Amino acid sequence: MLWNKIIAAAAWAALAAVSGCAPRQAATGPEGWTPHAPRAEIRPAFFHEPFGGPGGGGCLVVSAERREGQDGWWAKTFPVEGGRPYRFSARRKATGVAVPRRSCVARIVWRDEQGRPVRGEDDVARPVYPRDGDADADGWTEVADTYVVPSGAAAAVVELGLRWAPGGTVRWSDVSLLPADSPPSRKVRLAAVHFRPGGGKTPQDNREQFAPLIAEAARQKADLVCLGECLTDAFTGMSHVEAAEPVPGPSTEYFGSLARRHNLYVVAGILERQGELVYNTAVLLGPDGRLVGSYRKVCLPREEIEAGVAPGADYPVFDTRFGRVGMMVCWDVHFPEVARNLAARGAEVIALPIWGGNPTLAAARAIENQVFLVTSTYSDRADWMKTGVWDPRGRLIAEGEKWGTVVTAEVDLGPPVPWLHLGDFRGRIPRERPVGEND
User: Fold this and answer.
1) Are 170 and 213 in the same domain?
2) Among residues 59, 104, 226, 330, which one is catalytic?
3) CA dist., res. 384 & res. 391, Å (int)
């Protein structure tokens, strides 16, 4: 039996080398896999490559003609036990597909013993969308996630598809859905200072006023604390240009020492100078005291433009010991592109030093990207921006009310927030959002 497989594999490899493609079995999948499409007229082609895949164990192929709108998927039903965690994993390789995260989609649909939709606590248990990992050297991407099966489910229909990719092909291999350990909790304490510096004449005067507040955040066991915008010139009478400094520089050194002393991350808004250019910048200092990274404000209001401040042009996201962090600054919150770009690059928490702004837009940025937003404002208007922590539902779960205080909220970055009628909105975003510059 083994010798026969070796001979067959060798023959397949020889044919593939000569023809440039693998031998296929059309529209018939192994072990219960069946092809599907929403409508016959947009049905792509389906094939099974018995010895395809990264390990030669076979793969399922969906291939589109060079015309718009084709959509189809392979499906198989797996038995599951309600209330138990299961780990889904598959390998995917796309060729000729412009945006794989949107066109090459794995989906899991929960069903009861009669094949009917499963009811959740207050809604139908909606399908879930496993996440894409990084591609290996051969172009195979792991698509995987762990889910607790809805209590009423007895079956999981796994769908592996290709859609909206004229001339594209996707191969799916190494598919499994197996009992697993429960998804780990990823709790983190996010903090924001509600403070306006006063009486300072220099950047150092202002920096020093934040030291006791960072100590207070540490006392509240914060993992990350967000400080205010342009804190090196705020209320000093200095201009942005006069307060500007290099990065790394005096502010990153000062706040880095405090981050190291208190074993937390610090986000601070400062003015940065590089050559003749001045930027409104947020810096992230790590618990080792080093500069993790910086973000230059992309969206500038007219006042900063008139003052000669230059806009940034990138949306960096940084790995920390608790998750992935992005930053934006003040006016950025009024435009959806900044938070969207950060979230598309993997940000789970976005820190926002902000002078003032519309709090409804802070809630919107958290909702539409399913991230936690941490804000530190100088505003004292009741209808204007708040200091605090916003959750993926857009709720202000911690709010600064008294000047000179620190607010903290413990959040869990692990489980998605289920939405009525939408299900796992966080999982749906990369599969359904428009094509953007991160694609």
Assistant:
1) no
2) 330
3) 18
pLDDT at 12 over 60: no
Whether residue 161 sits in one domain with residue 203: no
What pLDDT does residue 256 have?
98
pLDDT score, position 25: 56
With a CB cutoff of 8 Å and minimum separation 6, the contacts of 21 are: none
14 pLDDT higher than 50:
no
| CATH code of the domain in which 65 resides | 2.60.120.260
Residue 17 has pLDDT above 60, yes or no: no
Query: In the sheet that 224-226 helps form, which strands lie side by side, from edge to edge?
Result: 291-296, 277-285, 265-274, 224-226, 187-194, 405-412
Pairing state between β 277-285 and 265-274: antiparallel
Exactly one of 93, 297, 304, 386 is catalytic; name it. Answer: 297
* 54 & 81 share domain: yes
Bridge-partner residues for 47, per DSSP? 26, 61
In a domain, 4, yes or no: no
> Which CATH number fits the domain that encloses residue 314?
3.60.110.10
Q: What is the mean pLDDT of the chain?
A: 93
- The range of the structural domain enclosing residue 347 comes to 187-414
Exactly one of 49, 93, 216, 229 is catalytic; which is it? 229
Predicted pLDDT of residue 382: 87
Q: Is 297 a catalytic residue?
A: yes
Q: Does the residue 419 lie in any domain?
A: no
Token reading at 247: 């990065």
The answer to whether 330 is a known catalytic residue is yes
Whether 229 is catalytic: yes
User: Is 423 within a domain?
Assistant: no
Q: What does the pLDDT look like over 250-270, one tens digit per residue?
A: 999 999 999 999 999 999 999
For the record, the structure tokens of 379 come out as: 């505003």
